[in-house]
Design a protein that fits this description.
The structure is a homotrimer. Chain A is about 30% helix and about 45% strand. The first copy, chain A, has a six-stranded mixed sheet with strand order 2-1-6-5-4-3, covered by helices on one side. At the B-C interface, α1, β3, β4 and β5 of B face α1, β3 and β4 of C.
Chain lengths: ~160, ~160, ~160
């Protein structure tokens, strides 16, 4: 079992700060991969059986292969339009469950950038992730995205 | 007297990193409460005599009860319109005053999300907070919000 | 030679967390100076021979004096229009090169705030910085900004 928080013999507050740093960097790199069209490398940030669930999708996408296919189709559609999307993750709230499992709640802002502009906010979502630490890195085991412009009154 | 920074015997740079982590999490949770309509829980993130001053208000709102009433009225008006607001705090700059008192300067972006979209940036503000550490947590003793679209030339 | 990471005898993960805290604060203060029109103080956050390169400029601006002149001209033009810009840096990814040199990749969102509103997203850029630690602080030695709405297909 991996013990990322205890391995270095840190005290708890130092470990919490380090975790915050790790998770912030994780999201920065993960979203850069997606935004840059590196779909396979992005999918590696999910566990092999990882699940991507979103209220904008008819049903959850399960497993890296299916995640790649869905992301590739979305990307191709945007490329055909000449539009880029950029994902900002913010307002991150980290809840350790065990030493190698976290619940992370965040907000995501998705910007849309057509050639020549103007830049618009395509959507705003909440993002509830279960992250697990394996092979020396954090990965998404389960992601629940809620597009708030599409949410039902009960979901909001 | 609470000594959140010294209690764990950390050195200064480790304490600064931990403080950064704490404050980032504080704002994430505080804004989630407000955005989620949990007005009473949100008001608990202010001290009992906490002050919320804003150039968009005719005068500062002082004390948790008054803060609850003002936030509730604002929320009810938005609910009536079917509009959600989401608050992003960013560009956080932390200035410790004592071990249990901080000045925190930040930017805030307020997004507006009507059912079906489109998402727009409702306003952009600066947010200058005095945070105090009491009962094991940080709370807002004084908040000064400046809506920059409404600011006078001298304020900007 | 300055050894900001080793000086305090911290272990690596604590040093990484402290670095994250320092860099986040650096960008918050740097952008506040620019946004607040304190151009000379902002230029001090670059090294004396610092370079600001951007695809929106015909050629890189090199040296603090030239950086001040370019920023002042841009600011005067905005002042004449009565428009304010606010820079958000996010999705920060820090790559230490040596103890006193970092590569930092980030996203930047530039908001535009006319008197009376509405607030819009003026542009979205990537920002690739080389930061060096000198005289007890981090400074930009080289900045490469890519405005994504103006980027060529190859650049995107």
């Amino acid at each position: 079992m991996t013990l990322p928080l205890e391995a270095a013999g840190q005290d708890r507050s130092s470990a919490a700060a380090h975790l915050h740093h790790q998770i912030q960097g994780f999201y920065a790199r993960q979203m850069r991969l997606l935004d840059g069209g590196e779909i396979e490398a992005w999918a590696e940030t999910f566990t092999p059986q990882g699940v991507f669930a979103a209220n904008a999708h008819p049903e959850p996408v399960a497993g890296r292969d299916a995640i790649v296919r869905a992301a590739r189709a979305a990307r191709d559609a945007l490329d055909a339009e000449g539009v880029r999307r950029r994902h900002w993750i913010g307002m991150i709230d980290i809840h350790p469950v065990t030493d190698d499992r976290l619940l992370v709640r965040s907000y995501a802002m998705v910007l849309e950038i057509p050639r020549g502009g103007p830049v618009t906010v395509h959507t705003h979502t909440t993002c509830d992730d279960t992250l697990v630490h394996e092979d020396g890195q954090w990965r998404v085991e389960h992601r629940q995205v809620l597009r708030e412009d599409l949410a039902t009154e009960a979901e909001r």
